[in-house]
Design goal:
The complex is a heterotetramer. Chain A has helices at 2-22, 26-49, 74-97, 104-123, 127-145, 153-183, 195-212, 220-225, 230-239, 241-251, 253-256, 259-281, 285-307, 309-337, 348-351, 353-366, 373-384, 389-414, 427-443, 448-454, 464-484, 489-496, 501-576, 581-604; strands at 54-61, 66-72. Chain A is mainly α. Chain D has helices spanning 4-24, 28-52, 58-89. Chain D starts with a helix and ends in a 13-residue tail after the last helix. The chains are: A mainly alpha, B mainly alpha, C mainly alpha, D mainly alpha. The interface between B and D is large, with 91 and 78 residues.
Chain lengths: 605, 177, 303, 102
Amino acid sequence: MAVLLWLSVGLPALAALAARSAGSRARGVAVGGALLAALPPWALLVAAAAGERATSGVAWLPADGLDVGLRLDGLSAAMSATVGTVGAVVLAYSAGYFAREPRAPSAVAGLLTFLAAMQGLVLADGYLSLLVGWELVGVLSMRLIAFNRADTAAPAAAVRAFLTTRAADVGLYVALFALYAGAGSVAFGGARPDGALGALVGLGLVVAAMGKSAQAPLQTWLSGAMAGPTPVSALLHSATMVAAGVYLLVRSDGLLTGWPMEVAGWVGAVTAVLGAIIALGQDDLKRVLAGSTSSQLGLMFVGAAVGGPAVATFHLIAHAAGKATLFLAAGVFQHERGSTSLGALRGAGRADPTTMALWTVGALSIAAVPPLAAFWSKDAIVAASEGQAGWLVLVLLAGAGAAAYLLRPTLVLWRPGAQESQPAPGRRPMLLAAAALAGASLVLGLLAMPLADLLDAPTPKATPVSAGLSVAMVLLGAGSLLVAKRVPDRVAEVARRQLLVDEGLRAFVQAPFFLAARELARLDDRVLDDGAIDGTGRGTLRLARISRRAEESGVDAGVDGLAHLLGRGSDLNRRVQSGRLYEYLRDTVFGAVAVGLVIALAAVL
Amino acid sequence: MSSLGTALVFWPSAAIMLVTGLYVFRTASMARAGLLLLASLGVEGLIFLALASEFLGVLQLLMMSGEMVIMTFFMVMFMPDPGGLMGMDMTHEKRRSAALAVAVAVGLAVVAVVTDWPAQTLNGEAPDVRQIGFEVMGRSMFSFLFAGITILFAMVGGTLLAKHGGRLGLPAPGGDR
Amino acid sequence: MSAATPFAVLAVALGGALVVACLEQAVAGATVSPRVLLRRAWRQVDQPLTTARGHDAWLYHLAPPLLLLAAVVALAMVPWAPGFRGVELSTGVILFAAAIAYVTPAVLMAGWGGGRPLVVLGGFRFVALMLAFAMPLAMVITAVAAPAESLRPAAIVDVQRAVPTALVQPLALLLWIPSAMTVAMLPPFDLATAREELGGGAFGQYTGVHAGMVALAQRILVLALAGMTAALFLSGWHGPLLPPAVWMALKTLAVATLMLWAGRRSPRVELDRLLSLAWKLAIPAAIGAIAWAGLVTLLFYVP
Amino acid sequence: MISLPVVLGVGAVMFGIGLYGVLGQTNAIMVMMGVELMLGASMLNLIGFMRYAWPDAASGAFFVLIVMTLMALEAAVGFALVISVFRNRRTAELDDLTDLKG
């Protein structure tokens, strides 16, 4: 079992090495490697389904109870299988996507390395190993986003993504330290220490999850990350990386019971609605999908908060399949039209009916149209959140929003456009991969029951009321879009500019920070530079001048005076030695008298 | 000697001693100065006889006669005007040295009077020859030996220095061989 | 030491001086007549005093009395008889030497006071002689006093009851005689004061009372030295038959005549040969005599 | 009649005279005579102590002996020096002999 664990993490890494050094045949090697790497996770899944539980690790600091290793349980097996499968499909897709790309080997190798890191994250045993995976994923995502060297915005977007996630990761570190300080160990399943440490652990984990899953107000980096190539967006920013945050919440369910989960839930609910609004306002196909991802992840946060691990994971997997399909289809359109902006893609679907069909399946799934997979998972979330009136409203609104923002691009794609789309090279593997995922999103609805007992958690149940409500919301959303024809300008403008989050951040965080900096600088200039430093400088100079003058008049005069004195003194002294004997004798007498006096005094006293 | 006898001897001889001592430095003629000094120290020998030890007094008389004669002899040899006929003034800074001398004398006298000396009356005879002999040969033999050897060195040194041509037997510069 | 002793000493001094004068006449072969001597002496005293031409007149006038005083003091030390031991001092012998030592300054004062070059030279000559011979004199006295373990002349005489020092320490006697004769200004050692030498020698200038005092002093000196010789070397008043005083007188007269007679017989030795003889021969021999005396004392006299 | 301070007083005066001689005279030999007088004064003091303060201390007498030999010694060496100086410089006047000037 331990071998399977390490294989599932090791194989993608080895495949990456092979692909990187494969040169022209890199894409073929990568696809083979990815398919091969998908097998061990499935074996794990089968074993986990059979009730196998195992951990295999290395004691890193035994004395302090810190060890690094991998773990097999229901959740990790499920996640590992999902990541493995989606990874394999996306790699197959990228074989076609990067057909013309001269730096294909590095792209493919990057993807495979990312897969290995993701496997490591999901299979980690204990927060320390999770942290290792977590960090690797962050770094690799930055590298993959900035892959397209021609696009000047890519590096900036990559750095922004990286910094945002890093800032959030600090929460994870704080949580980790607090947990270790309080509980003395960083293994999973521990209880949350109470008091301040507990608060730190809770908040830290929630913040880290928000950062990684692009929840408001940290969601802007996700739209920026769309600058990366589409397979990257498909793999990272739909199924795996952004899902890590949800996985973290589900994994540390024990630690977050109580108010931290409430916070996560509210964050998720709010982000769901905001994400939907942002998606509605975007005029770039991939940014619409990014907004949608934020919204769907918000739903997963609510699912984790209310429904329990099974509900969240079920929706995660369903969303992964659906969103990946949409991204792959978008990639095809991107190749055909050379751009992903909606204006350029007008009528692209009509020109390429098969891709349009795949896009439609994905859209329907994500919009939660029965009987597709996402409908069941979203329905489970709606059912679970019936107890929370506030969350129920927001979830339903998000559902409506989802329907709206997916219908809008579909209509654009379907409307007859003036531009001509040239056939994309390597279409067949791309279409094959997209078809596979579309099939998966059709079938995944049945996953509810097995997933529940795999995770031995309460089963997500879909009540007729919740089903009715969600279908009503879908119709409401679609209908409102058709009716409104056009989103009001100001709302569109606001939405497009990411709900002014950037401006807000800039206003509330950046501005005061810079203001304080400017003030301090001025203070520094005026007080320190002019006052202290220049002042001391001027003072020292003045002192130097005074000392020089003192030197000239005082010390020199003193020294010369002393020399003169010494001269005169020695001259006097010389005269004492006059050579005249009687003077010596007289001095001797003086000496004797002095001695006598001393003795007399001594005797008297 | 009885205290009256002592006083009778002490006072006149002390007076003679001091006067002749003073005149030693005021006379012009060197021979007279030498003999005055002889008189002064000789009379001091008498005081010794009167005060305490017979032996020391006699010894003083004996020693001084020989020494002062030699002193006179040398003065005649080396003084520019031994006869004191040319009226040379052989002194310098008379006033200042006189003042200093008087000051020192007065100082010592004051000390002599002020300090309370252990006034042991004379119980026995002052140490006579036998006692001095035992003393010299007994407790103080070492210092006496030392004194003896020093005198020997002094004599040898003196003779060498005085020898014609000095220590190295060199012909004296300018002088006859 | 009775109150009469000083007068006795004076009597002995004057009487003795007369006897010595007579001895001189005898030795000189002239008829011995005290009356002639006294008359000559009186004539001598009558002469007027010559005033010194030198600058230090009072030295000139002071010399003869000092000489006389020295002679008398020396004489007072001589132990004539058990009854009359002269001035009894525990350090009598040393005082005797001290008195003898004061002859030197007296002669020097006489010479220097005299003023004339030859007289001054005579004085210096006497000083040289006296220095050379005073040393052996003092050393011999120490040697002689050693057996007696005392500086009292009477004690020295008693020590010689058995054997006179002359026999025990002959070298001491041999050194004593010339020194004594030099001190007494007897020929052949009277180079400084002889009439024939240096135009009258140190006393050349003296006439009248001075000359008389000088002559008296010389005779007393001879008497004192002869008496001390008898006391220290010839066991003083010890003698088989005759009473002690008689023995002492006989011995003293014998020694005096010996000294006077020896003077006439031997020629005067030249000064520097005499001096080198004294310094190079007499003084080392005197040191030897002391050593010998010490040895003898330890062997025979110390009980 | 005569007590220790009297003797010491006389000694002090004699010392003063000696000092006057030492300081006042220009000729080396006269200076030595001054020194002789001072030594004589010290002997007088010693004798005074022997008589009035420590009569049984024979070491006092011994000390006098030492001073006596010292006087002789000092004179002897002094004369030797004066002779050698005189032979070189034909003078014993201290005022001329100032070669060791500083």
